[in-house]
Specification:
The chain is mainly α. Among the domains are: about 70 residues, no CATH class; about 40 residues. It is built from ten helices and no strands.
Length: about 230
């Protein structure tokens, strides 16, 4: 929320939550951090959460991860799922992501290359179902011939072009809170400080509008030249 100087990664749960709620404001993270601070300072509040029965927590996780899984599968809505090509790629990737990690965990002695570090890397990758399924799906989708319409690329591009005009105006949602980068820390050299960067989102929106105006101007010039 405030910028960071260390390398970070994204979790599929968070990406799914963003897709479901359509909320990407950094203030949500700040508010969540404040809630955690208050919970840690007052033991009674923490005791309330600790007293929640395990079945209720399990049910909550079932709903949350179920919706996240459904959001991931919904990305296939633009593909032709009547195509044998797409059915094979989807089914093979899912099944391989479930079975290969299980086999590797039970047969670690069969994946010996002679280098301990390399063996560890291979085992970590092959025991991660998301990597196995995602990599095989990516590989098969880009090697097995298929039309752009069959792969859903045309629909995604059309949807992106329709949303790109309005997206530039909404980039301020991702700006840092409390005016950081717009009212404070506005010097050019502040962008090199990870904890106090300039407002890249706002600047990106202006650049996108400028590039669009330049593109339209060039198109008009080409038309006038031909006339």
């Amino acid at each position: 929320a405030w910028g960071t100087g260390n390398g970070t990664t994204s979790y599929s749960e968070n990406v799914g939550a963003l897709g479901i709620t359509r909320v990407g404001s950094r203030m949500v993270i700040v508010a969540g951090g404040l809630v955690l601070l208050v919970t840690g300072m007052f033991g009674k509040i923490g005791a309330v959460f600790a007293s929640i029965p395990t079945p209720i927590i399990g049910g909550m996780f079932l709903v949350m991860f179920g919706i996240i899984t459904a959001v991931g599968v919904s990305n296939l809505q633009y593909t032709d799922m009547n195509s044998s090509r797409n059915i094979f790629i989807f089914g093979f990737s899912i099944f391989a992501g479930l079975t290969i990690p299980h086999w590797v965990e039970n047969n670690t002695d069969k994946l010996k290359t002679g280098t301990v570090q390399l063996d560890q890397v291979i085992q970590v990758l092959l025991t991660t179902g998301m990597f196995v399924g995602g990599f095989l799906g990516f590989l098969l989708d880009n090697t097995i011939p298929g039309s752009q319409e069959e792969r859903g690329l045309l629909a995604w591009r059309k949807d992106y072009n329709e949303e790109s005009d309005g997206a530039a105006n909404n980039l301020h949602i991702y700006d840092l809170p409390f005016g950081i980068g717009s009212k404070f820390c506005v010097a050019n050299w502040f962008k090199y400080l990870p904890t106090c960067p300039k407002q890249l989102a706002t600047r990106g929106a202006k650049e996108q509008k400028s590039n669009k105006a330049d593109f339209e101007r060039n198109c008009d010039n080409d038309i006038n030249t031909k006339v």
